[in-house]
Design a protein that fits this description.
The protein is an all-alpha fold. It has a single domain, classed as Orthogonal Bundle (Hypothetical protein af1432). It is about 55% helix and about 0% strand. Helix 2 crosses helix 6. The longest helix is centred in the first third of the chain and has 18 residues.
Length: about 180
């Protein structure tokens, strides 16, 4: 079964080990905006929607601080790897896409598999939260490079928009101990 949002059990597990404030710069509202933006882009790019959804959950899940945190993407990828075959059910090819997308999401890459590029664009389009306007030079897919997409994503990010999934699903799930 293909999912378009991380399963609640998986969200609960990730949040149980997340060390930063859930409402911080790299917390739940950011993850949810990356999810919504990624799925919006995937509708046009043809990216694997499940990998995009899982990227939103894992890419910043192992941050140690809200500033420069070298290696956090690799740690997120390793965390996902530790769950493969138990809480995470992906074939090897799709898992490899998720792993690479997480591990390399801060490296500035703009070429490669469309699913990975869609993940990276979804994250980069949320830079408004730290007062950075996304640069078309660092966006990889045509839908992400369009000005209407950049403006839409930046406005949500700068205003700290909290997608409905956070309050409706993720926070209530986090309150229930696994």
């Amino acid at each position: 079964m293909i999912i378009e949002r991380p399963p609640i059990e998986l969200v609960r597990l990730v949040l149980a080990e997340y060390r930063l404030p859930w409402n911080g710069v790299h917390g739940l509202p950011h993850w949810a905006r990356v999810l919504e933006t990624g799925l919006r882009l995937a509708a046009e790019t043809g990216a694997d929607r499940e990998v995009v959804a899982l990227f939103a959950l894992f890419h910043d899940s192992r941050r140690m601080n809200e500033g420069w945190d070298d290696g956090h993407g690799q740690r997120g990828a390793e965390f996902a790897a530790s769950l493969l075959g138990t809480q995470l059910d992906l074939d090897q090819h799709r898992f490899d896409l998720l792993y690479q997308a997480c591990a390399e999401h801060t490296d500035g890459g703009t070429e490669g598999d469309v699913t990975i590029l869609t993940c990276w664009d979804a994250d980069r389009l949320d830079l408004g939260r730290v007062h950075i306007t996304p640069s078309r030079n660092y966006l990889s897919t045509e839908p992400a490079r369009r000005m209407d997409t950049i403006i839409w994503a930046e406005e949500r990010s700068r205003k700290g928009f909290v997608p409905e999934i956070v309050n409706r699903e993720w926070l209530p799930a986090a309150e229930i101990q696994p």
